[in-house]
Amino acid sequence: MKTKQASHIVGPETIRMLELGHPWVVADAYTRKWPAGNSGQTIELSDSQGRFLATALLDPGERIVARVLDRKRIQLDRHWLTERLRSAIELRSRHADLSDSNAYRVVNAEGDGLPGLTVDRYAGYLMLQLYSAAWRPHLKLITQILQEVLSPHGIYEKSRPQKTRELEAVSDSKKYGRLLGGKAAPQRLEVTENGLTFLVTLEQGLNTGLFLDQRRNRRDLMGRVKGKRVLNLFSYTGAFSVAAAASGAAQVTSVDASPGYTDWARDNFAANRLNPAQHEFIVGDCLAVLGKLAQGGKTFDLILMDPPSFSTTAKSRFTTRGGTSDLVAAALPLLTGNGLLITSSNHQKVDIAEYLKELRRGALQAGSDVRVVSVLGQPEDFPYPVTFPEGRYLKYVTCVKG
User: What is the pLDDT of residue 43?
Assistant: First the structure.
């Protein structure tokens, strides 16, 4: 028997955002008057006249106090969840080119009508992440449905600690992933992306070692590097470096502040039968390394930088706002004429127009003529509603130096 949902009144500003199709209800004076409720409870949103607006998932105590599940009255049950998950899977089969990749996103939160929930595939395994505690009461049901629909070897959950910035530097060895069902994955699991092999971990660290939203951008890079000297800044586990080396780059120099990630990058080279000794790996602060490379008279045909939105090393603190222009200014003198500068950011709060202003500031600072030849974002398995601008977070800009 279907139970009637509790009705929750929202104010004029939230009504306006809901009518524009935005899926979030942000806490305000109206939501503070809501009756007490439990995280994961489904509620009906209405205006002061009692007009039904949407069914939402309650997350009391958080800034995003509710997330819209449907514009109709629904029950968050096995049938509804199965339909949503099947719809997400069908979108990938119809619209994403995954012929040579078995690592990709299966459910992209708001982009698949399941706000605050992501599901990634890594070969025969699935990885769930809950960006809202409201999904936790439904986790067992979601896991059961995924087992029935996709038959994975195992399903993991990667927890999202509150203070990820402080934890980034010490998170490599800590286990943030736990097995929800099925059999355990190897400590280093081999996956395929664009026909290349990468090693990921589903248990240790805040991240798996491969950012799936850059798959199409790595493919784009692969068509630009033959015979070129490539510098990859913030190289992490070397996915872009492997893509370049495997596609005929003359030499790839990878720079990252973490010795552990640099060793992982060497392992990724070896997994693709690429000799790490034929390429260069530098452990250090990227801005400081750029200075040393410039002093040594080094030049490159292509420079790529994909820094985290926020990072701290002993020598510097990087943020996308402000930091990007300094990096661009330091990198451009190392770039040959008509060389390519590729910059990327996943900072959700910096839109493409603001990001291009950062690139402009860096170019002016360096006194260089820089022209944009391509602007890309996330691939088809990371869809976002046109009514949800926060969903378009990834910026990947290719420029040519005059």
Answer: 97
Top CATH class, 78-187: alpha beta
| 78-187 and 211-401, same CATH topology | no
Residue 37, CA distances (Å) to 11, 52, 67 in order: 19, 19, 14
The CATH H-level (homologous superfamily) assignment of domain 211-401 is Vaccinia Virus protein VP39 (3.40.50.150)
Mean pLDDT by 10 residues, the chain (402 residues): 68 97 97 95 96 97 96 97 98 96 98 98 97 97 98 93 50 78 96 98 93 98 98 98 98 97 98 97 96 97 89 49 87 97 94 95 96 98 97 97 91
pTM: 0.92
Alpha carbon distance 132, 351 (integer Å): 23
Tokens of 204: 């240790």
The full 3-state SS of the chain, as one line of letters, equals CCCCCEEEECCHHHHHHHHCCCCEEECCCCHHHCCCCCCCCEEEEECCCCCEEEEEEECCCCCEEEEEEECCCCCCCHHHHHHHHHHHHHHHHHHCCCCCCCEEEEEEHHHHCCCCEEEEEECCEEEEEECCHHHHHHHHHHHHHHHHHHCCCEEEEECCCCCHHHHHHHCCCCECEEEEEECCCCCCEEEEECCEEEEECCCECCCCCCCHHHHHHHHHHHCCCCCCEEEEECCCCCHHHHHHHHCCCCEEEEEECCHHHHHHHHHHHHHCCCCHHHCEEEECCHHHHHHHHHHCCCCEEEEEECCCCEEECCCCEEEHHHHHHHHHHHHHHHEEEEEEEEEEECCCCCCHHHHHHHHHHHHHHHCCCEEEEEEECCCCCCCCCCCCHHHCCCEEEEEEEC
Q: Where are the domains of the chain?
A: 6-70, 78-187, 211-401
CB 177 within 8 A of CB 149: no
Q: Which CATH class is domain 6-70?
A: mainly beta
Q: What are phi and psi of 224, to 5 degrees?
A: -115, -5
Place of tokens 């088809």: 380
Query: Scanning the structure block, which residue is given the tokens 């195992």?
Result: 154
Task: Compute CA distances 363 → 226, 314, 331, 357, whole Å.
Answer: 26, 27, 10, 10
Is residue 175 within 8 A of residue 156, CB to CB? The reply is no
